[in-house]
Amino acid sequence: MRIDKYLKTARIIKRRPLAKEIAEQGRIKVNGTVVKPSVDVQPGDEMEIRFARTVLTIKILQVKDHVKKDDVSGLYEIIREEKTDQEQ
Fold first, then answer.
1. How far is the C-alpha of 81 from the C-alpha of 88, rounded, in Å?
2. With contact defined as beta carbons under 8 Å apart, do 54 and 87 qualify?
3. Neighbouring residues of 21: CB distance < 8 A, sequence distance ≥ 6
C-alpha cells in the first residue's frame, strides 16, 4: 500500500493530500531512507515522520485497505515520540 494511503488509513495523518505533501517535503523516512508518497510499505517496516515539533517513529504491524476506527491501534506500534525545540 502507498505510504500516503497508509498514513490516512491508520489515522496518523487526517487527510491523504496532507500525507502526500509531507512525504514530498522529505519529512518521512522508511527504514532510514527518505521516501516519496508512492512508496509501498509492508509489515515490519519502521517509519519516521517529522511533524512541526515532533518526530514520531512507528513500526508497521499490518497493512489493510479499510479499518474501523476501533481497530486502528493494531496497524502500528509507536516506538518513540520525540519533542524538538526547533520547528521542522
1. 15
2. no
3. none
